[in-house]
Amino acid sequence: MLLTTAITISFVLVGIALLLSFIRLVIGPTMPDRILALDTLYINSIAMLILLGIYLDSALYFEAALLIAVMGFMGTLALSKYLLRGDIME
Fold first, then answer.
1. Within 13 A of 21's CA, how many CA atoms are on the CB side?
2. Cβ count within 10 A of residue 17
3. Sign (positive/negative) of CA torsion 73, 70, 37, 25?
4. Alpha-carbon distance 10 to 71, whole Å?
5. 42, 69 in Cβ contact below 8 A?
6. What's residue 88's pLDDT?
7. Residues 41 and 32 sit within 8 Å (Cβ to Cβ)
8. Contact at 8 Å (CB) between 50 and 61?
9. With a threshold of 0.70, does the pTM exceed it?
10. Are 72 and 21 in contact (CB under 8 A)?
C-alpha cells in the first residue's frame, strides 16, 4: 500500500519534470539550453522506466532504461561536439 502510493506520487512528479524539460527543449533560448533539456529528458525517461519496472515487477524495463542511458549519453556527446567544433567526425 505504501509502496504503491509512493510510486504513484513519483510517477506524477517525474511526469511533471518531463513536461517542464520538454517545454525548455522547445522554447530554450540558446542551443546549450536545448542540449541540457534533451539530456534532462533522457534522465527523466530513465526514471520513468525504472519506476514502471518497479511497479510492474519486470526486469525488462531496467534493460530498456540502460539502453536509453547509453543512447542519451552518446547523443549528448555528439550534439555537444557538433556545437563546439561544427563537425562530429574528425
1. 17
2. 16
3. positive
4. 24
5. yes
6. 66
7. no
8. yes
9. yes
10. no
With a cut of 50, list the residues of the chain below it in pLDDT.
none
How far apart are alpha carbons 80 and 29 in whole angstroms? 16
State the cell numbers at 55.
511497479
Q: Are 50 and 65 within 8 A, CB to CB?
A: yes
Length of the chain: 90
Within 10 Å of residue 61's Cβ, how many Cβ atoms? 19
CA dihedral 52, 53, 54, 57 (to 10 degrees): 120
What is the grid cell recorded at 38?
Answer: 534533451
**C-beta separation of 67 from 50 below 8 A:** no
Q: Cell numbers at residue 68, please?
A: 536509453
